[in-house]
């Protein structure tokens, strides 16, 4: 796999049109570093309404309905969703809840992104919808309580390409679970949410090779933090996340600040030397690159007409341009007189970087 090295401000990508209540983050203004993280923890704890674990199934129709891929009203399961084709299976809300399962497609249940064994199934963590997603029971079981990580030699692969196997990132060699590229940034921002929301309780949790219980300010073990920072920058905030965040606020009255303000990630944890994983581009190319005019040509090994929207992000986390049905008339996009700089184009599950000179 071809890789290149570059330095980016982590947390720089995102769509900033979430329905944030007026003044919600005002008390965090001007703060940086762990002081900002602590204040955000206070903000998203205040007003939080604890719901029962069983009630999660009542929340999922608003937080996790597929309005973005097949748009068929089914349960949006990040472990089974195929972003560019037919899902291997899907579920209707309230139907085929687990019980027992033996293979994928048997039933869906509730996946704690941070395994509940790490906090001894205690409330409110056990029922916090911000980090508990509806997922296929079999894949959930295969994920077990493994950390999220990067897998090069999987021992098991789900029907949508999620993988279990030895960790390929430096700092940890145990078994990990790797979701598909489309949802890696989603997972990272959930992790950041959890260690912010529960910072004051983190020292009493088990690490699970993912939580840093001895340094609650950092929140995640160093190897996991570095990987989550990378996934955060490679996979910008999506419409799915914004919709979910708004629905979660309506459900339990708190928000994920790293969806509302992805730039907070860099302000808290700083910048990283990041490896650009070429698999995120999947043969998507922009020409010319660097860009010298306002028109770019996008090519790839897929039919780009399947993508209904394209997004362009600048280096400070702003969604600077959204293009509806970008490839219906061809494979060119006209830029809106963007200033010189580095940008990210995201369409569907594809991301790629380009430079305007």
From TrEMBL:
Leader sequence segment: 1-18
Protein name per UniProt: Por secretion system C-terminal sorting domain-containing protein
Keyword Nuclease in record: yes
Keywords in alphabetical order: Hydrolase, Nuclease, Signal
Protein family (similarity comment): Belongs to the EndA/NucM nuclease family.
One Pfam family named in its UniProt record: Por_Secre_tail
Entry superkingdom: Bacteria
Entry annotated with the keyword Nuclease: yes
InterPro entries in UniProt: Endonuclease-I (IPR007346), His-Me_finger_sf (IPR044925), Secre_tail (IPR026444)
Any one Gene Ontology molecular-function term assigned to this protein's record: hydrolase activity
Residue span(s) of domain Secretion system C-terminal sorting: 287-355
NCBIfam families reported for this sequence: Por_Secre_tail
């Amino acid at each position: 796999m071809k890789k290149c090295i570059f330095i980016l401000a982590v947390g720089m990508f995102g769509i900033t049109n979430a329905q944030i209540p007026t003044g919600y983050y005002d008390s965090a203004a001007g703060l940086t570093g762990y002081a900002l993280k602590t204040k955000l923890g206070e903000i998203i704890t205040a007003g939080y309404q604890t719901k029962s674990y069983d009630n999660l199934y009542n929340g999922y129709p608003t937080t996790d309905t597929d309005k973005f891929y097949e748009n068929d009203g089914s349960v949006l399961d990040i472990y089974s969703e195929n972003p560019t084709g037919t899902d291997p299976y899907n579920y209707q809300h309230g139907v085929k809840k687990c019980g027992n399962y033996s293979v994928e497609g048997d039933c869906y249940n509730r996946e704690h992104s941070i395994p509940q064994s790490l906090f001894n199934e205690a409330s409110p963590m056990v029922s916090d919808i911000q980090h508990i997603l509806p997922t296929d029971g079999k894949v959930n079981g295969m994920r077990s309580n493994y950390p999220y990580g990067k897998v090069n030699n999987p021992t098991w692969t789900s029907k949508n390409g999620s993988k279990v196997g030895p960790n390929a990132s430096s700092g940890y060699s145990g078994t990990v679970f790797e979701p598909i590229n489309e949802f890696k940034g989603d997972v990272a921002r959930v992790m950041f949410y959890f260690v912010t929301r529960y910072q004051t309780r983190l020292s009493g949790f088990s690490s699970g090779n993912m939580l840093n219980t001895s340094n609650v300010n950092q929140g995640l073990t160093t190897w996991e933090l570095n990987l989550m920072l990378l996934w955060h920058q490679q996979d910008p905030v999506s419409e799915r996340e914004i919709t979910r965040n708004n629905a979660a606020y309506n459900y339990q009255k708190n928000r994920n600040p790293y969806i509302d303000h992805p730039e907070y990630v860099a302000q808290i944890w700083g910048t990283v030397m990041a490896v650009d994983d070429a698999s995120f581009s999947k043969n998507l190319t922009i020409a010319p690159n660097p860009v010298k005019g306002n028109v770019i040509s996008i090519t790839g090994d897929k039919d780009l007409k399947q993508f209904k929207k394209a997004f362009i992000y600048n280096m400070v986390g702003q969604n600077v341009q959204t293009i509806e049905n970008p490839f219906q008339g061809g494979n060119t996009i006209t830029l809106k007189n963007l200033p010189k700089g580095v940008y990210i184009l995201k369409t569907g599950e594809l991301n790629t970087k380009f430079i305007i000179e």
